[in-house]
Amino acid sequence: MKVLHLVSTFPPLTHTFVLREISLLRKTGLEIAIGELRPLHRNRAAEGFEELNPFVIRASWFSLDMVRGLAFFILRSPSRVLKCLRVVLGAFSRLQYLTRVIYILLSSIRLAYRFRSAGIGLVQADFLHTEALAARFIKILLGLPYALTVYTVFAHYPQKVVDGLVQEALFLVADTMQVKKLLEAMGVPPQRIHLVRNGVNMDEFPQRRGHEISAPPIILGVGSLYAKKGFHVLLSACALLRQHGIEFRCVIIGDGYERKRLEGLIRELGLAGSVELLGYLSLSELREWYYRATVLAMPSVVSPEGETDGLPTVVIEALASGLPVVGTETAGIPEAIRDGLNGFLVPADAPEPLADRIQTLLERQDLRESFASQGRRLIEQGFNLERKVERLRDLIRAHTTQTHLSCLIGSGADSKPSRRTVLS
Q1: What is the pLDDT of residues 94-116, one digit of tens each?
Q2: pTM, whole model, 2 decimals?
Q3: What is the dihedral of CA 249, 255, 258, 262, to 10 degrees?
Q4: Domain spans of the chain, in order of start
Q5: Rounded to the nearest 5 degrees, what angle is found at the Cα of 28, between the Cα atoms of 24 and 30?
Q6: Residue 35 neighbours by CB under 8 Å, 6+ apart
Q7: CATH number given to 2-199+384-410
Q8: Under CATH, to which class is 203-382 assigned?
C-alpha cells in the first residue's frame, strides 16, 4: 500500500518538520510518494533532505500532464470534474484568490492523472490550506481516502469549504488540544480525531551543558515575519529593556511581508544597533542560534484577520535544546510552556510583561538552568518525533486496512473479485 503525501512545495524551508516526518515514516516501511503542488520558485530550499528527491513528483507552473489529465477526467467522468469546480466556486473568498484555487485544482488533476493506477491507498495532507484542498480534489477524482494533520485553528477558506475538508477526511490528526477542540466544534466525531503531538528528533537537539551567557546576552526570535508572530510586540519590549538600562542583542530569524514594517519600527524605536533581522536560515544554521542565545521570545498574537499560531515548532526545538522560552498565552503555546516551571507565559500584545520576563531570565542563571532542565524533560516525554512517527504509522495502517476490508465486504468479496475504485 502506497501513501501519497502532498506538499505545497519541496523542500519547504518553513516546514522542515513535515519533511523529517516523511523521512522517518519511510524508514518504518511505509511506501510514500511526495506530490509537489507548485514549484519552489524563488523561495529558499531546505537542506538535508536529498534522500527524498527520488520520491518527489515535481510540479511546474504548466505541464502537459495538466492538459492530459484534464482531458482524461472530462472524457471519463465529467461529473467529477464539475463537482471539483463547485468546490472551487466555494473555496475562494475574494476574486483575486480565484486563479490560485484554479491552479490548485489543475495541479491536483495532474497528480490524480499521474497516480490513477499506482496503487495509492491513502492521500496524506498537512494544514487546512492548499494541501487539504488538493487532497479533497483527488478524492473526488479518484475516490481515494485522505487524512489531514491540522496544526492551526485558522484557515483561509470559507467555513463551508473547511467543513467539507474535515468532514470528508478518513481521519484527522490534531497536534494540540486547541486544534482538537476546534475540530470537535466543527462536528467531527471525536473517534475520528487523534491527538498526536508534533515532535523533534532528540538527537538533533542535544541539551546544552554549562552554557555561558554571551556578552551582550542574545534574545532570539524565530518565525516568518507575519502579523500573527507578534514581532512588533517584541520590538516594543526591546525598547523597554533599553530604557531599563539592560544590555542585549536581539536576533530575529525569518522573513515575510511584515519585514518593511518591522524595519521601520526598529528605526522608530532607536533599536538599529541592537536588533537584527537575519532572514531565513537553514535548519543547521538555526540550530546554532539555539545554543548561542540566552532566551527565546515567542510573542504570538491574534492578527487583525483572526489568524494565530498553533504550537510553533521552534518552541519545541528550543525547549529540547535547553533554551528558556518566554511565550504568550495564545494559540497552542500554553500546551508546551508551564508558566514558572519550564518557561514564562505572558499576555499577548503586552510589551511590558514580555520585557519583564525576558529581563528576569537575562539576570537569573539559576532560573535559566532550571527551565532548561524541565523543558528538556517535557519534550522527551511528550514531543518526541520518533513516537509521533510510530503513532502516525499505526494510524495509517489501521485505517487503510479497515477501509480496504470495508471495500471488499461492500463489493461482495466472497463471491467475486473486488473492483478498483480508481479510473484506469
Answers
A1: 676 788 899 999 999 999 999 99
A2: 0.88
A3: 20
A4: 2-199+384-410, 203-382
A5: 95
A6: 4, 5, 6, 7, 57, 111, 115, 134
A7: 3.40.50.2000
A8: alpha beta
